[in-house]
Amino acid sequence: MTWGQALAYFLREAVKSLRRGWRVSLLAVFTIAVSLFLGGAFALLGYNLGRQLESWKGQARIVVYFEPATSDELLEREGRALREHFWVNHVSVVGREEARRRFESVFPDLTDILDDSDAEPLPPSLEISLTAGARSGREQVIRDRLERIEGVRWIDDDRAWLSRLESLVRVGRSVGMVLGALLLAAAVFTIASVIRLTAYRYREEIAVMRQVGATELIIRCPFYVEGLLQGLAGGIVATFGLRLLYAWLSPDAVEDGLRQAVAANFLPWSSLTLLVLLGGVAGTAGAVLSLPREVFGAEPELD
């Protein structure tokens, strides 16, 4: 028997076994599909949050708010001084009038609050965009320099909340990996149970094959292929499920910010292929674990 004939035989026997026990096979496929779907959902969320986080990092800035009475001359002088630092990419001076204009454009219904105030409630500020090297480091050095500026009231550093968000993304990815691994282990156990039941159902045929000289490879490989097919089927179902989830999250009914954060992009083909292959590996592992020596070691007596 050539390798091509052997592979055709393994596949034919695996498909035959799947058709005979389609109910339990569906259970195995469903179990592995659920585990891969949940793992893929966490991967989709982490993928989009990671991309969005990198985009936000590229726009990270520091806003230095001053006392309302700070003069425009002081703002301009400090702005020119800050532009000389290597960690500064650009400095924008936002005076009181500009701050009011921005507030009115963002919160048009709250403009009466500004008009009712005797003093100017909105402070002037300096908006500092950072160089690429400073976006993820030198936090304390930069903050110490800014705190020494005369009239500084408050410093808002985007990198602080971006750092916390990055930690949350890492935690979410870790939780997804652990949960997916646990569910995948349960799926492997399910497939192992299904294959073991199938092997016991064919134990007399296996005994006959042994007596006519069939090798371990010929006996075991159809079961391995059966587990592989179940795992691949589960991976494909999980991929379609993720596509449906992505389509459900993408409509205009979802808030723009949320859509950009969790469903701006679908997983790349490399990740989807890896997901399907992971299902195949899990199915094959379940089949291998389900067929220890004792399953085939003893030959049943034939009448």
How would you describe this protein?
The chain folds into 2 domains: 3-56 and 163-297, no CATH class; 61-134, Alpha-Beta Plaits. It has helices at 3-20, 22-58, 72-82, 96-106, 111-116, 139-147, 158-201, 203-211, 216-249, 256-262, 269-290, 293-297, and strands spanning 61-66, 88-94, 125-130, 152-157. The longest helix has 44 residues, at 158-201. The chain is built from 12 helices and 4 strands. Residues 298-303 have low confidence and may be disordered. With 303 residues, it is α+β, with helices and mostly antiparallel strands. Helix 1 (3-20) packs across helix 9.
Kindly summarize this structure in a few lines:
It is built from twelve helices and four strands. The protein is an alpha+beta fold.
Per-chain topology:
Blueprint: H1 3-20, H2 22-58, E1 61-66, H3 72-82, E2 88-94, H4 96-106, H5 111-116, E3 125-130, H6 139-147, E4 152-157, H7 158-201, H8 203-211, H9 216-249, H10 256-262, H11 269-290, H12 293-297
Antiparallel strand pairs: 1-3, 1-4, 2-3
Helix pairs in contact: 1-9, 2-7, 2-9, 2-11, 7-9, 7-11, 9-11
Number of strands: 4
The whole-number mean of residue pLDDT values reads 79
Q: What gross morphology would you assign? A: rod-shaped
Report, as a whole number of angstroms, the end-to-end distance: 30 Å
Provide a count of the helices. Answer: 12
Q: Which runs of at least 5 residues are low in confidence (pLDDT < 50)?
A: 298-303
